[in-house]
Amino acid sequence: MSLLRPWLDAWKARWWDFRRADKFEIYERCVEAALEDPKTQRMLGKRPGVSWRSVHDRMLSTQGIRLTMSQCPGEAQAAFDKACEDLEDVQEKHQAAAEGAEWPWWGVCLLVAFVILVLLSVGGILALAVAVLVLAVLLFTSFSRTAVWSNLRKSVVAAGLGIAWAVQRVDTGIRAVRWGEDLQKRGTGPVVAQLIRHMLGDDPDSLFIPGSYQGLRAPRAPAYIVDNEATRQLKRKLAQIEYGTIAVCGPRGVGKSTLLEQSVDAAGFGLLAQAPASYTPHDFLLSLSVRLCEKYMRSEGYEAPELTRLSNVRRLLRRLRLRAQRLIRWSAFAVPAAALLTLGLSAPVRSLYAQYAGVVAQFADTQAELIRDRTIEIWHGNAVAASVMVTVAGMFWWRARRAAWLPSFLGQAWTLGTFILGMVMLWVSMVRMVEDQFQSRIPELLRDIPPSTIFQFIVLFLSWMLCRRARDSSREIRVGRWCFSLEKFFQPLAALCGVMLLLMLARTPQTHAILADADNPLWLTGVVTGILLMGAGFWRPRAAEPELVTLCRHHLYRLQTTQTSTNALSAGPADALSLGTTHTTSVSTIPPNFPELVEDFRSLLKGIAAQKAAQGKMVVIAIDEVDRLGSDTQALAFLSEIKAILGVPYVYYLISVAEDVGAAFVRRGLPHRDVTDSSLDDIIHVQPSTLRESRTILAKRSETLKAPYAMLAHALSGGVLRDLLRYGLQIKEMQDKAQSFELTDISRHLILEELSETFAGFRTLLSKRQWIPGTSDILSAFRTLSGYLRDACPCAKATMQRVLEQFAFYAADERPAVVGHEELADDAAQLIHEASAYAYFSLTLLDIFSSDGLERRLQQAAGHGLDGDPERLAEARLELGISPHSARPLIDNIRKAWSLPLPPGPAATSSRVPPPRNCSVHSVVRG
Fold first, then answer.
1. What pTM value is reported for the model?
2. Could you give the CA distance from residue 621 to residue 607 in angstroms, rounded to a whole number?
3. Does the pLDDT of residue 353 top 60, yes or no?
4. Which of 177, 513, 907, 918 is at 20 to 30 A from 42, Cα to Cα?
C-alpha cells in the first residue's frame, strides 16, 4: 500500500483541482500538501512557534501568497487565468440567455431530444429529416414573429451556451490541474521549506531531523561507498603500469581495507587475502595458493575437489545420491513429456515414414553404392586424380589436428545449418497450417461465434495479462505491520486465469473444429521437428577440462592431501603348504617446501594472468592487514619473505602496510636501503577525509545529518573513516539520550561521553604505575572529574565546566599543578599530559558546538584565516595522536580564531579539583 500511496495522492490532488478550479482553494491545497510532506513534517514542532498551524497561516497571508505566486510565473498560470476569464464570460452569457427565455430551456431541450429519439426509432433518419423540414417551413411562415418562435430560439441559444460552458469548464479544470502541479512543484514546496527555515531562527541546520541511518549501520556496504582521492589515485597508478606491486598505507580505520575490496571487485579476476599475525610466510602462501586455485576453478565453471574426511564409501554414496536426485528430477519432466509427444505424434510420424521411407532408403543405397564403387576404383589405381586428392586430404586432416579454427568452423557450420533447417521447417509448417485454416474454416467459423463468447475471451485474456503483469512487477504491498508480495498473490491467479482461458477455448465449438483438422498433426510434427533442430544446433559436446583448471586441481590435491601408493608382489607355488615371498612398496609424496611452493604459485598465477590479459581483464591480488603483524620490523620481514611471489607479469599486487613501512619506501634509501626499495613499485598514502569528503560520505549514508553534525563528527574523528561513521551513528544515540533536537544539547552529551570513556581508559593505564602518597591525588582527580562527566547533572553544569577547564589548562605551567609538588615518573607524566591535552581539545569542541549561533560564529572565525577553518579541528585531533605538546599550540590558535578564552597563567592553575558533593535538587552524588 505504501507504493500506491503517492500515486493515489497525486490523482486525488488532480481530481480536487479539476473539480474546484478555484485559484485560492488550489493554492490552499498545495500549501497543505507541502506541509504533509514527510521531510517537512519532521521539521515541525522541533522549536517553539514552528507548528503546522503557524506555517499554514503564514502561507495564507497576503505576503505569503504574493511570494509564492512570484516563484512560479509562466504559461500554466497564464493559461489558467485566461480559462477562468473565458469560463466566467460564457457563464454570464448563458445566465442571460436562460433568464431571457420564458420557457425552461432545459425542458425544451429534453422535449426536443425525446421527439428526435421517437422519430429515429419509428421512422428512421428519413422521418427525422422530413419532420425537421416541415418544422422549419412552419416556423418561417407562420411562427416567425410569434412568442413561440422567440422562446424556442432563446431556449436553443441557452442550451448551446450551456454546452459551451460545459466544454469551457472541462478545459478550465484541465488548466487548473496543470497549474496546481506547477504551483506545488515550484511554488508552495520550496517556499514552505524556506519559510520553515526562516521561522526556525538561527542555525536551522543545527536542528536534528530524525531519519534513516541504514548507511551508518552497514560500514562495508558497497552501495554507500564514495570515491575519494585515494581511489582516483589508485586508478591512475594502475593505468600507468602494466603490472607491479603497490603499497597502500595510512592510519588504522582510514579505509585501506575498503579500498582493497573495491579494487578486487572491480578487477576481472581478483583475490583478497588477510595476513593475520599468527601466519608464517609458508602458511600464508599455502593458504593463498589454495584460495587462488579454488577461485579460478569456480570462475571457469568447475567445482573445486571436495577434500573431506569422509570415507571413500560414504563419498561414493553421497555422489550417487546427488546424481540420483538429479536423474529423478530430470526424469519427472522428461519421461512424461516424451510419452505425450510420442502419443500425440505417433500417427503422423508413421504416416510420414510409410510415405517417404522407401524414397529415403533408395537414395541412401544409391549414394552408398556410388561411394563403394569410387573407393574400389581408387584402391585398384583406376582413379589417379581421386587418389591424389584423397592423399592430400589425409595429410591436411592430420596437420589440422592442432588447428583451433577447425573445431570452431565445424561447430559454427553445425549451428548455422541446423538452425536454418529448423527455422525453415518451423515457419513452413506454421504458415501452411494457418493458411490452411484461413482458407477453409476460420472465416466461416468466425461468423458463427456469439458475442458472449468473444466477451468472455476478452475478459479472461485481459485478466490473465494483468495478473502476469502484477506478478512480474516484484512489488510489495504494506498493510500495517504486514507486507504482501504481489508475486506470491498474483501467481496462482495468473495460473487460474490461464487454465480457464484454455478450457474456454477447448469447450468452444468453433475452436474445437479448428483443432480437429486432419492436417494439424502433420504440421505440428513439422513444428516440433523444427524446434528440436534449432535446439540441437546449440548443442556441443562437453569441452575437455582446460589445462589451467587441471593444473589447479592437481595443485590442490598436492597442497591439501598426502598421497600414498602401495605395491605388493607375492610369489609361490599353488600348493597351500609351500613357502612363498611377499614384497610391499609404499610411496608417499612430500609436501612442497617454501621455494617449491613459490615456484608453483608463480607458474600457476602467470598462466592465469596471461589468459585473463588476453581477455582484456585485470588480475589483482590484494594482501590486507600486513600492518597487524606487530612492529614495522616484523612487517618488513614478512614482506621480505613473500617478495619472491611478487613481480608476476600482468598481475597487480596491492599490499596494505603501516605508515612506518610506507615512510621507509618514501625515503628511497636515505640513509640506507631496505626491502621496500626492491619489493614495492609505488605507494599510495590514504589520508583521512577532508571536511568536504566527510560531508559527502555522511550525506550518502544519511540525508538527515546536516553540515553542523558532519562538522562535529569530522572534528571528533579527525577524518578517519571508521571513527567518522561511528560518531555519525552515535549522534542519533545521543539525541535519544538528551531527548532534544538541538545541536547544543546533542554535541554536549556526545563530547562529554567520549571524554568520560577516554578518561576511564587513562585512569586504567595510570593504575598500573607505582604511586606514592604525595602523587596519588591524581587518581582521585581523575575519578572526581570522571564522575562529573559521567553523571552530568544540570545543576552542576557550571562546576563541571570549571573543573574541566582547570584540568585542561594545567599544562600552562611546566609541571602538573593538580598533583602537588612531588615529581611523577616520566611515563605517568606523559599520560597526564596526553589526558590534559585531550581534555583541552574536548573543551574547545564543547565551547564551539554547545553554544548558540554556530553559523554566525563560524563566519566570524573564518575571518581569522586558516585557524578559523573547521578543518583545523580535525587536524588538532590527529595531532593529539602524535604529541600533546605539538597539539596544544594548534588548539590555542583555534581558540583565538573562535574568540574562546585561553589558558590562564601558572598561578591560576594551582587550585585543585573540587571534591565530590551532593546535588540538592536531583539527589545525585557528584564524583
1. 0.69
2. 15
3. yes
4. 177
